[in-house]
Write a structure and sequence with these properties.
The complex is a heterodimer of chains A (309) and B (253). Chain A is α/β, with parallel strands linked by helices and 309 residues long. Chain A folds into 2 domains: 3-216 and 285-290, Rossmann fold (3-Layer(aba) Sandwich); 224-279, Alpha-Beta Plaits. Chain A is 36% helix and 26% strand. Chain A is built from 12 helices and 13 strands. A 6-stranded mixed β-sheet of chain A has the order 5-6-7-3-8-9, sandwiched between helices. Chain A has a 4-stranded antiparallel β-sheet with strand order 11-12-10-13. In chain A, strands 2-1-4 form a 3-stranded antiparallel β-sheet, covered by helices on one side. In chain A, strand 8 (199-204) and strand 9 form a beta hairpin. In chain A, helix 3 (93-103) packs across helix 4 (110-117) and helix 4 crosses helix 5 (133-145). With 253 residues, chain B is an all-alpha fold. Chain B is elongated and about 60 Å long. Classes of the chains: A alpha/beta (309), B mainly alpha (253). Chains A and B meet through helix 3 of A and helix 1 and helix 5 of B. The complex binds adenosine-5'-triphosphate (ATP) and magnesium ion (MG). Magnesium ion binds at residues 43-44, 83, 155 of chain A. Residues 14, 17, 19, 37, 39-45, 83, 188 of chain A line the site of adenosine-5'-triphosphate (ATP).
Chain lengths: 309, 253
């Protein structure tokens, strides 16, 4: 199956800052793709180029094979929620959506339908200036859904949502993907997309560093554990000698090895353990992958530690 | 295009700004007319009570501040969308950005014409009543109709002027202050102090278009109405040409 979204050598420089650097990637339909990277990684800039709002310095970005600007009836094909996009505070939510629906020649019922879908039906006639951050985020999503699009581009959609809101968004996004739509959502926190995303595009410093399924990333990250011992230095030295990556954290040691291996090694050497917890190493893998490229890749625990703090 | 214009009109209707603007325009027009008619005097060379051109002059003068307000409305049409970030959704709906600018231009011309027409009813009625009350000359002749047409045209052109200025400057505060400073003190000072130069400014051209030379005591130094009108049209076209070629290419951050 062909990709719904294709980025080819996409590059953007702002003066001397290379915000996006030669990004090539594909986003397929029917699944949730997370565009993941730390602050300033270039996510927003990439999404804005995809939507024709920012002109690339080089490269191409297409949706269904065409640049956004050449899509017929773009609102019916692509819905987007972007950072720093909003609405006049004096306008009601319904009026805001009516304006967009009018411009896009959508049905008169579309605004009410999307307000209902995003849980804003009761606030339709309130001024947007009175809205909370989360309500504004929902309004953005409502605007994106106006044309019932097959592709959704969401820039940090969980910003400002409370835990219930985040959960609701997860379900909503999941449902949209299950309906066969393409969902591309950006986030700076892996934990946020861990339960939603099928596929991950990892970006840091403008460069795409990984495109893989979340499952593959998880397998690659491997097992890890957190261990507490009164003999921190001795155990640390033993583990490093055994070839494991060790990282001190709050008096504990975080080890890139399965709990069983650490437990067996400690028992064999007679090191007392107070606690030994297995942990998912995905979060660390994320930090590891997105840290400064200028820094040497961590050979021992300390540089990994630095990247995590 | 039709849909885009309707959306732009809806934008104007769904905030309070337009209502305030219409209210302010009406109020200012009434105050200016009352002040000018009461200042008019049989011996006053500027506003002569028995001059058949008096009604037209009073009407022309009364639209001075409404023109500034119309320019501000035009400037806000673009800069407010930048400020509140709705420009993003506007451009997502219609990625051909010059069509958005064009829709805004059409909407502003419509609004300018409607405001001017509505205000003119009040203006003319009030002017006639007040001038008659002082036994002044109320003549509805060619010059009166010329001023009426000129007022409507000027309101429409100033809206477009503001739109282009806003699209070029993008920042709401900067655009509004630039408008107020230039159309307020700057031009008036130039026209007063250096009429030879001042008459070539957009404001000077408008005074010419409205045939206000005698009323502001610079008779003979202003341009004639047709030349003034063409010059104002030229300025508006030039700044819009620049806006239409520059604004659509910029990144929307
Ligand atoms: N208009 C601009 N002018 C100059 N530099 C910019 C501009 N917009 C973005 N940048 C720079 O480009 C880089 C990428 O920014 P971008 O907003 O795309 O990051 P992001 O991944 O969305 O970050 P965040 O998670 O904080 O939203 C940053 O270094 C930023 O400073
Ligand atoms: Mg961002």
């Amino acid at each position: 199956m062909t990709a719904a979204i294709e980025l080819g050598g996409l590059t953007k420089s702002f003066g001397s800052v290379r915000a996006v650097d030669d990004v090539t990637a594909e986003v397929r339909a029917g699944r949730v793709t997370a565009f993941l990277g730390p602050n300033g990684a270039g996510k927003t800039t990439t999404l804005r180029m995809l939507l024709g709002l920012v002109a690339p310095t080089a490269g191409t970005a297409t949706i269904f094979g065409k640049p956004y600007g050449e899509l017929a009836d773009p609102v019916r094909q692509v819905g987007a929620v972007l950072e720093a996009s909003g609405c006049h505070p004096g306008r009601t939510a319904l009026d805001h959506l009516r304006i967009l629906a009018t411009a896009a020649r959508l049905s008169r019922k579309a605004p009410l339908r999307v307000l209902d879908e995003t849980g804003l039906a009761d606030d339709a006639r309130r001024r947007v200036g009175e809205f909370s951050l989360g309500m504004r985020q929902r309004l953005g999503l409502a605007a994106a859904m106006l044309g019932d699009p097959a592709v959704l581009v969401l820039d940090e959609p969980t910003n400002g949502l409370d835990p219930q809101g985040i959960r609701w968004l997860r379900g909503y996004v999941r449902q949209l993907a299950d309906e066969g739509r393409t969902v591309l959502l950006s986030s700076h926190a892996l934990s946020e997309v861990e339960q939603t995303a099928d596929h991950v595009l990892l970006i840091a410093h403008g460069r795409l560093i990984r495109s893989s399924t979340l499952a593959a990333l998880r397998a690659e990250a491997g097992a890890g554990c957190r261990v507490r011992t009164p003999e921190t230095e001795r155990l640390s030295a033993l583990l490093v000698a055994a070839g494991y990556c060790v990282c001190p954290e709050d008096g504990d040691l975080v080890v890139e090895a399965a709990a069983e291996q650490v437990g067996e090694l400690a028992a064999a050497q007679g090191v007392v353990l107070h606690r030994l917890n297995p942990m998912a190493r995905l979060e660390e893998a994320f930090f590891h992958l997105t840290e400064q490229p200028e820094q040497p890749s961590p050979v021992d625990g300390t540089s990994l530690h630095r990247a995590t703090t | 295009m039709n849909a885009l214009v309707r959306a732009e009109l809806l934008k104007l209707r769904t905030t309070r700004m337009l209502r305030w603007l219409v209210l302010a325009t009406l109020l200012l027009v009434v105050v200016t007319i009352a002040a000018n008619v009461s200042a008019a005097d049989a011996d006053d060379p500027a506003l002569a009570l028995h001059d058949p051109a008096l009604l037209g002059q009073v009407i022309g003068i009364s639209f001075g501040i409404p023109q500034v307000l119309m320019t501000v409305l035009g400037a806000l049409a673009f800069t407010q969308e930048v400020r509140y970030g709705s420009i993003t959704s506007t451009f997502l709906v219609e990625p051909r950005r010059s069509r958005i600018l064009l829709a805004k231009a059409v909407a502003l011309v419509l609004v300018g014409v409607v405001i001017a027409a509505a205000t003119l009813f009040v203006t003319v009625a009030l002017g006639m009543v007040l001038i008659s009350a002082k036994d002044g000359n109320v003549t509805i002749g060619v010059q009166f109709w010329q001023v009426v047409v000129a007022v409507v045209a000027a309101m429409a052109l100033y809206g477009l002027f503001g739109l282009a200025l806003g699209a070029l400057l993008r920042d709401q505060i900067v655009a509004v202050i630039a408008t107020l400073v230039w159309l307020g003190p700057a031009e008036h000072l130039l026209i007063d102090v250096l009429p030879e130069i001042g008459r070539w400014t957009p404001g000077g051209a408008t005074f010419g278009l409205l045939q206000l030379g005698p009323a502001i005591a610079t008779h003979g130094t202003l341009l004639g109405a047709p030349v003034g009108g063409l010059l104002l049209l030229g300025y508006t076209a030039a700044v819009n040409g620049l806006a239409f070629s520059v604004a659509p290419r910029r990144d929307v951050i």
